[in-house]
Design brief:
The complex is a heterodimer of chains A (259) and B (263). Chain A is 79% helix and 0% strand. Chain A has 10 helices and no strands. With 263 residues, chain B is of the alpha/beta class. Chain B has 2 domains: 183 residues, P-loop containing nucleotide triphosphate hydrolases (Rossmann fold), CATH 3.40.50; 64 residues, no CATH class. A 6-stranded mixed sheet of chain B has the order 6-7-8-3-9-10, with helices on both faces. Chain B has a 4-stranded antiparallel sheet with strand order 2-1-4-5. The chains are: A mainly alpha (259), B alpha/beta (263). Chains A and B meet through α7 and α8 of A and β6 and α2 of B.
């Protein structure tokens, strides 16, 4: 059924879903079922959101908090990609490395990013290292796993064609194995960015003195539900924007290869 | 070239024979086609000549030397083209030349000549997916031809094409190999294709693959002057062509009968 919907009616349905959600929210807030303190109306949240972009809260405006969050995210994500992708590729190409790393990796990746928080707090306190470590722990596994799959499941016909054309080991890696793995790597980066961004707030809830997560914790201690919800909205919007960006990169690669 | 080559695979710990005591030779500048039913090991033959697989016993030699691995002196055209989708047509054809340490200028010249020859002149900067199946296979053939290989190995290169495109490609391959004869080992399950293209046809029996007979086509082709015809259907109309085709068909049938009689 899904693919029979025209694009236009799909957009209309999306609007309906969003509109319905806000209507329900407004209705619930307007009724006295939930105290205003715990569920401010959508308008109240929007107002608070606008206010946060103008006036500093716990030291910074919302944009500044976002910027500092984004900086941490960028550092953690870049580190995860720079270490994870080459490691995954190498594990896919060299069986011995796969053997050495796999058991450790498979055990460690089940330690959720939030479970790294106490450890990060002990090591780094509220320094910059803590959040980066936690983001890294979220973003790292998908980088490794997808690069590994991409490298391991390169279609044999490409490898054989290159061999019969006399490719050296180096050219086999740079011109065949690596480009063949690119779609899988980029898909991994997209998942990784999403998980990293999600872990970020967990990190900032505890081990930071700025950032959106920090803003939300402070909002909570001031019993300002609107502030907390504004932070949630900001996280959602930025996360969506990151995903959109990486999705367009993915689409461009697939278009170029005709898939 | 092939001397008493046997190849067995293992399946569930059991040895499964694929080829048994296969011996034949492809002469310099000769076009040899191998025909046989599916699973008779003809692709295995090609892969062993390419150095992608190795005989369990016996030996495969090219130019007097044993085959130890794949290399550009034995270029392969695969059934599924195997063009690199991340490279342009030009870069695909250039891939093997770069490995041979040929200077950029000469590479460009040779590629331009090859593109012209294969009717691909305006497609150098296209990506494979932008081309039709027939065009993609032309690129794959060009990629092998440009290397000027001692031996050209073709594994059912037209198997994935529609009937009309296949005929066009067969005619072009005949022209190409008359202008520029090569040592070719060509795998196919089409009897017509084998008789039309090859100088000699190796007929194989089903699993384990054995050589049944080698049918000489070149003598008949020269005597009847098939090459005066431009079109495949005119060649196929010749009495001599029909006789050869029928003979190979009978050979294939007989062995199928014996194969099914076995319990």
């Amino acid at each position: 059924m899904h693919d029979r919907l025209s694009r236009r009616s799909f957009i209309a349905l999306s609007a309906l879903g969003l509109g319905g959600f806000f209507a329900l929210w407004a209705l619930l807030a307007a009724s006295a079922l939930v105290p205003k303190l715990f569920l401010p109306s959508p308008v109240a949240v929007a107002e608070r959101f606008a206010e946060l972009t103008q006036q500093p809260f716990v030291g910074y405006t919302l944009q500044q908090h976002l910027l500092s969050s984004f900086g941490r995210f960028g550092a953690g994500f870049a580190l995860a990609a720079l270490i994870g992708v080459p490691l995954g590729l190498a594990m896919g190409w060299f069986r011995w490395l796969d053997g050495v790393v796999s058991p450790l990796f498979d055990a460690l990746r089940f330690v959720a990013p939030i479970a790294w928080v106490p450890f990060a707090a002990l090591w780094f306190g509220t320094g910059i290292g803590g959040p980066i470590l936690i983001i890294f722990s979220g973003a790292f596994p998908p980088c490794v796993i997808n690069a590994y799959r991409g490298a391991k499941y390169v279609e044999p016909r490409f490898v054989e064609a290159a061999q019969t054309l006399g490719a050296s080991h180096w050219r086999m890696i740079t011109e065949v194995l690596l480009p063949a793995s690119v779609p899988s790597i980029v898909a991994g980066l997209r998942i990784s960015a999403g998980l990293g961004w999600q872990s970020l707030v967990g990190a900032e809830l505890i081990v930071a003195s700025s950032g959106v997560g920090y803003l939300m914790v402070k909002g909570q201690s001031n019993i300002s539900t609107a502030t907390v919800m504004s932070g949630m909205v900001a996280i959602g919007i930025v996360g969506f924007a990151i995903d959109l960006l990486l999705r367009s990169l993915e689409a461009r690669i697939h278009r170029k290869r005709g898939r | 070239m092939f001397d008493r080559v046997t190849r067995t695979f293992e399946r569930d710990g059991q040895p499964v024979p694929a080829l048994a005591e296969m011996s034949f030779t492809v002469r310099e500048r000769e076009f040899v086609a191998i025909v046989g039913p599916s699973g008779c090991g003809k692709t295995t033959c090609m892969r062993m000549a390419a150095g992608l697989e190795f005989p369990t016993s016996g030996s495969v030699t090219v130019g007097g030397r044993g085959v130890t691995g794949p290399g550009p002196e034995r270029a392969v055209v695969f059934q599924q083209f195997a063009l690199f989708p991340w490279k342009t047509v030009y870069e695909n054809i250039e891939f093997g030349l770069r490995g041979k340490g040929i200077a950029r200028g000469e590479r460009a010249e040779r590629i331009a000549r090859q593109l012209e020859l294969m009717g691909l002149r305006d497609y150098g900067s296209a990506y494979p997916h932008q081309l039709s199946g027939g065009m993609q296979q032309r690129v794959a053939i060009a990629r092998s031809y440009v290397l000027d290989p001692g031996v050209l190995l073709m594994d059912e290169p037209f198997g994935a094409l529609d009937a009309q495109t296949r005929v066009v490609m067969q005619e072009e391959l005949v022209k190409l190999s008359r202008v520029n004869p090569r040592t070719v080992l060509f795998i196919t399950h089409s009897v017509e294709e084998a008789v039309y293209l090859a100088d000699r046809v190796v007929v194989m029996s089903p699993r384990p693959g054995r050589m049944r007979e080698v049918v000489d086509v070149a003598t008949v082709r020269a005597a009847e002057d098939w090459d005066r015809h431009e079109r495949i259907e005119d060649v196929m109309d010749q009495q001599s062509f029909v006789r050869l085709r029928t003979r190979i068909w009978r050979l294939l049938r007989e062995q199928q009968a014996t194969a099914t009689e076995q319990p």
